[in-house]
Amino acid sequence: METKTLDLLGTSLGIELGSTRIKAVLIDSAHNVVATGSHEWENQFENGYWTYALCDVWAGIQDAVAQVMAQVCEEYGTPLSQVGAVGVSAMMHGYLPFDENGNQLAAFRTWRNTTTARAAEKLTERFSFNIPQRWSIAHLYQAMLSNEAHLASLASINTLAGYVHEMLTGKRVLGVGEASGMFPIDSETGDYDARMVKTFDQILAEHHMSKTTKQLLPTVCKAGDDAGVLTAEGANRLDPTGVLQPGALMCPPEGDAGTGMVATNSIKVCTGNVSAGTSIFAMIVLSKALSRVYPEIDMVTTPEGLPVAMVHCNTCSSDLDAWVRVFGEMTAVSGASLTKSQCYDLFYKQALAGDPDCGGLVHFNYYAGEPITGLEDGCPLLLRRADSSLTFANLARVQLYSAMATLKLGMDLLLNSENVTLCSLMGHGGLFKTPLASQRLMAGALNVPVKVQKTAGEGGPWGMAVLAAYRKNKKEGQTLSQYLDEIVFRDEECTVCEPDPADVQGFADFIDRYQKCISVEKEAVEALKQ
């Protein structure tokens, strides 16, 4: 048997800390996946905030990386002692405050928190620019408005990806796409917006803060920029066994939105992608500015700094996962033997057999607040009339519809109110792992063709590995867009689902009932608060 070989210095490692899984993906010089590792984790609701402990961050990263290293050893008979390049991404936004010595001052506040409404509203007014509740600057300002004690020692703030990168390299930098989830970016300069920096400096002074905006925030980098190298301490953090050696080139850390754009080759003007997992969001690269400020639409950037309209919804697959788990338990009790993957495949297949309007069923999948529909908190809720058609197929279909509903409301503002041109959307993330179902229903929901590539299931971690490869391989003057078109996606195949008229009308009927029932969801949240 011929021994397989692997050029270790030709590899790139992408690590992504998602909401429910930490994943590591190692690719070779041709951008093919060589090995993967994953670690499941869950956020905790503590002292009024959704959070993750930083010790769990490193335990999860080490577990995922160890799986990659074990696969390489088994497949190629050689230890993964070196990699050519490394990149880190994570759930965007959130708030991690530190003192001058790098000590964490408060628990990590994730994108899922909806505790910053007052701050976000005031900043939106001062900036004349939409500041979402989950942005880092909104969390900081809310802490200032609440006179939180930790601010007396505050020296810097970061996102989760930025923090991990700093621990691996000693450099406090962020990719421009990730930075745009902290503070508004000026796409002309590729840096924090100077006018808004000046305004926030005034706000900091009004609250007797000792640092300026630029001192508090990480330095902004574009894709391909030098973001340091993996230090000896950083290598030990990834692999405490000491096999992995330092020296790998590090690319700027990015958020999961940026890696999704890369993974779907959606970084050019008028391209777009939808990422569907624990949360769901669409990213549309714009050709011109929007006509006005929309609270439902965030303005962020591509990893190269182009302006992007982002429709972000806090909840996507969590309640769908819960229903699949329940049906899996039922099959197990009955004596049937179905794997988790088989349960999902069966559930999605039945969704396609459901009535186009779900037989009159309405479902809210909210596990947390949903700013697009004006909810500060949420609870899953299934509604039906006595004469609705409650079947397994309709129940499965309404779960998928519910996962797409708030995204539809935000996207309508772009496609209808702003007349944004969009030829198709690239779908990626866990919701698209099962072939056809989510892709077809998403096309019907948004009335836009939806494409899915073979790498859709890998999503962000693979996209982060590609960004690391670009940092290592790019030629003089070669843009990220050129690198993706000419090298990474040159021979990529994808499937395309055109909108089915029956699905389009069915989803329109569903979303009409959904909007009428939002008040019921709000009442349910209030009734169950205690």
Automatic annotation (TrEMBL):
Signal peptide positions on this chain: none
Pfam families: FGGY_C, FGGY_N
Biological process (GO), any one: carbohydrate metabolic process
Domain of life per record: Bacteria
InterPro entries recorded: ATPase_NBD (IPR043129), FGGY_C (IPR018485), FGGY_Carb_Kinase (IPR050406), FGGY_N (IPR018484)
Keywords for the protein's UniProt record, in alphabetical order: Kinase, Transferase
The Carbohydrate kinase FGGY C-terminal domain, residue ranges: 273-470
Domain Carbohydrate kinase FGGY N-terminal: 13-236
GO molecular function, one term: kinase activity
Family indicated by similarity: Belongs to the FGGY kinase family.
Designated name of the protein: ATPase
Species: Merdimmobilis hominis
